[in-house]
Amino acid sequence: MRFFSDNAAPVHPRVLEAMAAANALDTAYDGDALSRQLDGRFSDLFERDVRALWVPSGTAANCLGLAAICPPYGGVVCHRDAHIQNDECGAPEFYTHGAKLMLADGDGAKMTPDTVRTVLDAIANDVHRVQPHAISITNATEYGRVYRPDEVAAIGELARSRGLRLHMDGARFANAVAHAGCSPADITWRAGVEVLSFGFIKNGGMSAEMLVFFDPDLVGATPQRRKRAGLLFSKGRFLAAQVLAMLDGDLWLDNARAANAGATLLAGGAGDRLIHPVEANEVFLRATPDEAAALRARGFDFYDWAAGEIRLVTSWDQTPDAIRPLADAIAAL
Amino acid sequence: MRFFSDNAAPVHPRVLEAMAAANALDTAYDGDALSRQLDGRFSDLFERDVRALWVPSGTAANCLGLAAICPPYGGVVCHRDAHIQNDECGAPEFYTHGAKLMLADGDGAKMTPDTVRTVLDAIANDVHRVQPHAISITNATEYGRVYRPDEVAAIGELARSRGLRLHMDGARFANAVAHAGCSPADITWRAGVEVLSFGFIKNGGMSAEMLVFFDPDLVGATPQRRKRAGLLFSKGRFLAAQVLAMLDGDLWLDNARAANAGATLLAGGAGDRLIHPVEANEVFLRATPDEAAALRARGFDFYDWAAGEIRLVTSWDQTPDAIRPLADAIAAL
Amino acid sequence: MRFFSDNAAPVHPRVLEAMAAANALDTAYDGDALSRQLDGRFSDLFERDVRALWVPSGTAANCLGLAAICPPYGGVVCHRDAHIQNDECGAPEFYTHGAKLMLADGDGAKMTPDTVRTVLDAIANDVHRVQPHAISITNATEYGRVYRPDEVAAIGELARSRGLRLHMDGARFANAVAHAGCSPADITWRAGVEVLSFGFIKNGGMSAEMLVFFDPDLVGATPQRRKRAGLLFSKGRFLAAQVLAMLDGDLWLDNARAANAGATLLAGGAGDRLIHPVEANEVFLRATPDEAAALRARGFDFYDWAAGEIRLVTSWDQTPDAIRPLADAIAAL
Amino acid sequence: MRFFSDNAAPVHPRVLEAMAAANALDTAYDGDALSRQLDGRFSDLFERDVRALWVPSGTAANCLGLAAICPPYGGVVCHRDAHIQNDECGAPEFYTHGAKLMLADGDGAKMTPDTVRTVLDAIANDVHRVQPHAISITNATEYGRVYRPDEVAAIGELARSRGLRLHMDGARFANAVAHAGCSPADITWRAGVEVLSFGFIKNGGMSAEMLVFFDPDLVGATPQRRKRAGLLFSKGRFLAAQVLAMLDGDLWLDNARAANAGATLLAGGAGDRLIHPVEANEVFLRATPDEAAALRARGFDFYDWAAGEIRLVTSWDQTPDAIRPLADAIAAL
């Protein structure tokens, strides 16, 4: 059974249905009736006027977002375990034309104002050093930790005081909101976030994420950059349809709650095998190679992480009944 | 009725069905069973071993292809009306890191060995001038003209003699093959084409094109570049599914034949309004603003082109019965 | 004798002396006493507050200037024979991260408002087309023609009306000013020029050009880009010294007048061999291969240009006595 | 007195003389008689056929070198205190079009095979991670430490075993060779170095460094990249003249020995204030702000480094008599 990534989870049936329905429209690019709803729908969700563009992958969302707030000669502070640093084959450098990622520390891939400040304070302010222009935080993090609104706000305040823009990689934004139990606004712009990569693909979508600019002016040349990267799909209505279906009836939140609950269930019997508190839909455990092999022998599929560590990821489609056998197997190790 | 672009045509039902079926798979990126069939299926189609990668847009296919054959300090000869020059917001320059497009002439957006040679011969071979590294031809062209295999081969021979790579932008490759009545091999690698952007989106697909390298070694770092551009979708199986559905039973050819037939029908009564011979699924007509307005008043939707010119594009889904009213209206102008 | 390029002319003795004198200073980069005079000295010269940065080559000056006014997804209108298009191996694309040059026509490599407008008006204003952001004119042009202040102003007015920035490639700016007999201000910012590459190397300098921003705010990140390109020399005082020596006593104008006079002398007996009016220090002549060979046999060194054409360039160091033998030889052909 | 950087030291009189003499030549770019000697002269020095190109700054040398061995989607392992990481405003990212620097540890800014291996072994070999393509070491390092030939060779062997190219930033190469007392060949290509930035500017030159390719084929498109960056100076003879003057009579070694001796003299009375062994021309000392102020009050100019640390750099032109007062002052603190 699939616990290696929510990346590979199925698409929610309501999303597929919405895509099929969108076939009847016949306007190209983002001129269709669905795409034109996005600004409004996300403005409603976030309780302020935003600009919201579909993009077809999380990497694209992150990197178009960073390109909007960091010039080629600038830097972006992020955690050293961030997806943009380790898992995008240099996409931030490609999209920004060579900006430098500046790596901060923090437990569970969470930065704090202190760890960010350590990076910033080591940078002499002269023309020889790449100067920081932005901070990027990931919520939920690569280790399934969640920044609560006050934690985001603390970094937001630091960003503002240093004249830096704040981006949030929300590939698992829904899981973070579901865990925090707050409004989407509280954990983003009210806490200082200016650009959000809002993920749907891991959460029941197929190929659509949203890039949200809380200050509409910040969108700048993002439409041009999106086109220039080959991301302005001619049949964009099928991306808009996915996202709108996820918003309808808060499917995005329901799916995230289900995935989070699955991880909590898994972690239940893990005891001190647990490496990180489980706050979203990822569980990191200590497990010997033999133990990992034993789990795999029973049909559970997951990633080896560092030596003696495994990663289990739950998805929106996995019911408690489907997860319980793995939870039991972990408890019984 | 939609005659403004095949870009906005519906997705073929068999494609949608194949996508729905792909939902049952659960492997990420291009590791799934469908994506892994692509090299083999396209090798069969082209009668030689090829490497075939899905990409989600024609711009992405073109520009990843060009990046594989032209370095940042090189140039690509293309027609001055080529899509890569005029309709991709500088994507070739973005993906190649600044290569220069070198613009050639030719009727109907078709270059000839002579018009390419005129460009090449004007370039002094020294370190001050950007040197050409590749030629890119579009088949069918922006004006719905088709390069026959012998015409491609003439440019292929020129490319080889000058040490240049040859790329074909086949956003409407199916329409070209359908018109030429040749094998896909004859009009590509047997004629010297080394990299092909093979379009499906305008022809009944949703969001998948194929980038085909006829010499598998030429693929080089394209997988890295695809990832780096945010184009390695985690749910890539839905792209592979589209393409495989289009190959099954030669749906790609049937669709193209239908679209081409529609254009031929439209052109039938156009007489000397016709600006270019109709060989694919586009019809360019002389029409005064009043005439254009009269057609629009009857519900036909199309683009104004240059002053006094209109462009009509037919699609796979438009039956003769659906097209005939416009054909009649044109004849009656 | 050297008539192939002013590129290779000797350095003026006063420049060499100034460089030797600069050796006594010992501050790095552009913090030295000479570099710090530049803003002031060029503000005086141009009769307004400017920002003036040394750069070590004309290509660097042009491309840092363009990068300041054109984003990666933008375009720069220039003449199709411009140096930035033909002689810089794609440096504009490198420095701007892929902006597109948009080529205009015009006799003698001079654009006019009409020829620029033809380019601009063909560009649909949508996200698919690279949009123009700037115009770059070369004064004196590649063919030794000079834009007079009113001609610059006409293009400046067009630029302003279209929201475009205006750059002047002044690799031979001194020759243009000498010919026009105007003030440097009249032919630049008073005529709408916002960024100037002010050349000294062809005119008696060794390795220093100036990049002048008439609106100090436009300098933007140019200091960072200069550093990032490896152009912020640690011993920058030797660049500043060159330029200041050229300004002292208007050496730059004297040198240009001498070079221009040489070209006028050469052209005197050329009659209808002359291809372009001689306004700066270049002479383009019709000459058969035999005639060219005859001149070379007498020790005159120059470039073949197009078929049946030769280019002769005079330099600041060539006296009338030194030039007269070639003038006579041409007249006697 | 200047101890803040060798960057600002005077140009050696023999270099100035050679530049003045080069004024008599009149060939442009690198076609002159001096530039054409460089391959041969450096082949002699390094005891094998090399390709040697002048470039006008150390940053340019490093980054053109890296661009020759690392593609845009690749990575370069370097020390976290390396000049390319901290002092070039992102020039490596600019020249390579976005390659990523991968930071290794090591005392005194010296990496070891172990610290490099730690970086390499943490990189999963898949398309999501930027893959390393090269290692760059600095000799002498930012802290004045020298890699001996066997230490270079150990890293060279690691590079070879992992399929990585090896670059040496030799901004202070002369100081390293002078300290190691070895041949230039032993500390470079015989130890696995493939590309060398050979510095002259800090060592008595004005504006010329050499980029040396030990495998002539590796030079690749470096001439095009040099031009494209605005670094192919039209009066390149003045760069070649500088370098040749430095080679004549081993001036480069004499100068480096003098600078190294100065640092050794300074360190003589420093006792346990010394932070790093003194092997080249840099001395890092512990000193309180009061102590630093006291030294400055006596006219000695230097950089504050980290808190409680100062950096003193000696230059080729500083005689023992000139240095002794500072040495005494340090000893007397």
From TrEMBL, chains A, B, C, D:
Keywords: Pyridoxal phosphate. The lineage of its organism: Bacteria, Pseudomonadati, Pseudomonadota, Alphaproteobacteria, Sphingomonadales. Belongs to the threonine aldolase family. Homotetramer. InterPro entries: ArAA_b-elim_lyase/Thr_aldolase (IPR001597), PyrdxlP-dep_Trfase (IPR015424), PyrdxlP-dep_Trfase_major (IPR015421), PyrdxlP-dep_Trfase_small (IPR015422). It comes from Sphingomonas gellani. GO terms for molecular function: lyase activity. This is L-threonine aldolase. Its cofactor is pyridoxal 5'-phosphate. The keyword Heme does not apply. GO terms for biological process: amino acid metabolic process. Pfam families: Beta_elim_lyase. Residues 3-263 form the Aromatic amino acid beta-eliminating lyase/threonine aldolase domain.
